[in-house]
Amino acid sequence: MITRDRIVQTFLDLVGIDSPSGEEDAIAGELEHRLRALGLQAVQDAAGNVLARLEGAGAPVLLSAHMDTVEPGRGIKPRWDGPDIIRSDGTTILGADNKAGCAVILEVLQSLIEDGGPHRTVEVAVSRGEEVGLVGAANMDYSRITARVAIVIDSGGPPSSIQGQAPYHYVYDIEVHGRSAHAGLEPEKGIPAVTIAAEIVAGLPQGRLDDETTGNVGIIRGGLVRNAVPDYCLVQGEFRSMVEEKAETLARSARRHIETVQARHPGARIEASIRMAYPGYRLEPGDPAADLLYPVLRSLGFEPNPHPVGGGTDGNVFRGHGIAAVVIGRGGYNQHTKDEYLVVPEMLDCARVVEAAVRTLPA
Ligand SMILES: [Zn+2]
């Protein structure tokens, strides 16, 4: 049975282990230890993600969360705010994003094991580096994962709060190689990489392009000193759209634009990589994740509330690997702020929903 005191204690224990992105060794070790204590074969893959498996019946379901947290996330001191809410002391985040997701997975496994009874095979993947670009999920050992459907426990709000639509995300790296020269003595011998990069930047998609498409130049880096023509400039950015064709069109026109700039500056060498970082999706009936979760939510009295999100989660990466993922709420609010808090009954509801989903054997 999902047990409130136990899941709360697990959550508090996990929050007590600092795990800012890039410093996940301690939390990974703790998760591995706890999974093994439950009798699961737990391992860390080459990227340090914690993977585990609990045998059951029927096609496996992947349960996933991430173990890293954002800053300020060191020395977190959780405290109760009334009977149902846990906050930090106001100087750090709380880390419910995503220690609550980790606690839900551990509680569901414990409940499955101690109650016995039929359930699907459960695969577990707790990722590193989610908050810094889905790094763990991108480098996960997918040869160890056979599930074609996943529940990613990493959204704010109650479990009915589902990330129902996420954008296609494209990223680019553009390098302009020019030629340096003394800016005062012989500038005509130089090929000014920064100026050429500026021409490129001026033609890249930026800001809100329409109600489902955005673009951003995030980094421009070049030049060393004031009095030399710069021989190098790097431009990095991204664009996103809920519609794959729109994102593809932006990628094509960005490439054309860069070719035009290159033609204007034959002495420069421009190297551009524009690529899809992860695919978007829209949860619709017939999607294996929606078909798994929606009936379970309704049977427990929750009406699924899918909403679009502008960012990516590990769920996007899983979809890129052919795993139909759904991202559900686990009771956190004000994520990535010092006002972050956890509504304990919603974390419990999330655990009940996830357990019920895993106990639903395919017909
Ligand atoms: Zn998260």
UniProtKB/TrEMBL annotation:
<dbReference type="GO" id="GO:0008237">
    <property type="term" value="F:metallopeptidase activity"/>
</dbReference>
<dbReference type="Pfam" id="PF07687">
    <property type="entry name" value="M20_dimer"/>
</dbReference>
<feature type="domain" description="Peptidase M20 dimerisation">
    <location>
        <begin position="172"/>
        <end position="264"/>
    </location>
</feature>
<keyword id="KW-0031">Aminopeptidase</keyword>
<comment type="similarity">
    <text>Belongs to the peptidase M42 family.</text>
</comment>
<keyword id="KW-0378">Hydrolase</keyword>
<keyword id="KW-0482">Metalloprotease</keyword>
<keyword id="KW-0479">Metal-binding</keyword>
<keyword id="KW-0645">Protease</keyword>
<dbReference type="GO" id="GO:0046872">
    <property type="term" value="F:metal ion binding"/>
</dbReference>
<dbReference type="InterPro" id="IPR036264">
    <property type="entry name" value="Bact_exopeptidase_dim_dom"/>
</dbReference>
<dbReference type="InterPro" id="IPR011650">
    <property type="entry name" value="Peptidase_M20_dimer"/>
</dbReference>
<dbReference type="InterPro" id="IPR002933">
    <property type="entry name" value="Peptidase_M20"/>
</dbReference>
<dbReference type="GO" id="GO:0006508">
    <property type="term" value="P:proteolysis"/>
</dbReference>
<dbReference type="InterPro" id="IPR001261">
    <property type="entry name" value="ArgE/DapE_CS"/>
</dbReference>
<feature type="binding site">
    <location>
        <position position="66"/>
    </location>
    <ligand>
        <name>Zn(2+)</name>
    </ligand>
</feature>
<dbReference type="InterPro" id="IPR008007">
    <property type="entry name" value="Peptidase_M42"/>
</dbReference>
<protein>
    <submittedName>
        <fullName>Tripeptide aminopeptidase</fullName>
    </submittedName>
</protein>
<dbReference type="Pfam" id="PF01546">
    <property type="entry name" value="Peptidase_M20"/>
</dbReference>
<dbReference type="GO" id="GO:0004177">
    <property type="term" value="F:aminopeptidase activity"/>
</dbReference>
<keyword id="KW-0862">Zinc</keyword>
